[in-house]
């Protein structure tokens, strides 16, 4: 296995500063972490964009830690969004930025939230965050591709791989509440499902970068990375992550054969329904996977279908506009308080379905605008085969997780990152030649290169 990553002093310097930020956050909270970030940012005159992107991503990865030593990242996210927006404004944040394509969804969400939301300014800020996150990620990636596309892709590849290895190292330390939660592996994340979704996003991003650049010179090397991802998914018990990656891989294999792809797409919706609702315990128990896959909860998708029924009834009361951002969690919390009480099961602490969450928040119009944004991203992708697989991956994962309805989680930035890189049609991995249309005259107004 041969990897040509992290082979320069500059990358090691970035990692050293990032490590210092984490240590500062653990010891002095988010203020200490932000102070070290500012010092590092001023020192790294020639690598500020690279540093900002990696710190931005890492902070959001760790941002779901609401307690413990890594909880500083939860508040640090907001400071980084503000800092990034101000810094990138002078670099044309609002110009030629594909992130504006999510503007229709954002402005509709703002409109609905301002009219109907019981949550006030907090919900309005979450609506704005969708647009800010998109503008920041798409602009950062665009600027870094202009600077050096290969170096950026190598940096992202090495960063994601490093994060995987750091989580892998914690596997032997079976400390409940630290690296494990109720026997399920969670690594550096706040919960096992969060780790599962994060690894799920890593898989297609690494696949895209490996196909473009051949960082691993042999297929065996990259196969080891895939095995590591699946191994940690298995330990985390993330059925959503494992199934979504399987759907991604099969769709990529079948993409060039419409005769096989169409039947697969027809079978996919009932397959997702079966996995989400039907009792498959006896089948998997016979294979010896009862504990790892939590088969005692599989018949009701960990109890989530009970919540789905309640949520759907509320959707039908406000089908067109919804009730504003964050209404999904607000409604479930109120319902739990009124009808279930303090001893409610864990599944009553969320909706666990992105489509139902979006419908509760912004109705059928809002969810249509969100899907329109995804379609526009697919249209601009340079590798349609991998982009199609990625779309199926995120759409299938949304059946049992509500990540689409939140902009400040660890996963929405990765959605933007993937499509921002997909739109860059510049690198030939075989001959290592750069095709640079970035400065050519066919650059379209929305900041994406014509394909």
Count of structural domains: 2
Q: What is the subunit arrangement here?
A: single chain
**Mass-distribution shape:** globular
* Overall SS class: mainly alpha
Give the proportion of residues in helices: 55-70%
Largest sheet: 2 strands, antiparallel
Number of helices: 16
**Order of helices and strands, N to C?**
HHHHHHEEHHHHHHHHHHEE
Q: Give the C-alpha Rg.
A: 22 Å
User: What is the typical, i.e. mean, pLDDT?
Assistant: 87
**Low-pLDDT segments, ≥5 res:** 1-7, 279-283, 427-451
Beta-strand percentage? under 5%
Measure the end-to-end span: 34 Å
Biggest sheet strand line-up: 1-2
The tally of beta strands, per DSSP, is: 4
Structural features, described:
This protein has two domains: 1-91, no CATH class; 92-434, no CATH class. The protein is 64% helix and 2% strand. The chain contains 16 helices and four strands. The strands form two sheets. A two-stranded antiparallel ribbon has the order 1-2. A two-stranded antiparallel sheet has the order 3-4. A hairpin with a 2-residue loop joins strand 1 (180-181) and strand 2. Helix 7 (192-213) packs antiparallel against helix 15.
Keywords, please?
451 residues, mainly alpha, 2 domains, two-stranded antiparallel ribbon, two-stranded antiparallel sheet, 16 helices, disordered N terminus, disordered C terminus
Break the fold down into its secondary structure elements and pairings.
Elements (H helix, E strand, L loop, with lengths): L8 H35 L4 H15 L9 H18 L13 H14 L4 H27 L1 H21 L10 E2 L2 E2 L6 H22 L5 H18 L2 H16 L3 H20 L3 H5 L18 H12 L11 H13 L14 H27 L3 H14 L14 H11 L4 E2 L4 E2 L17
Antiparallel strand pairs: 1-2, 3-4
Helix pairs in contact: 1-2, 1-3, 2-3, 2-5, 3-5, 4-5, 4-14, 5-16, 6-7, 6-8, 7-8, 7-9, 7-15, 7-16, 9-15, 12-14
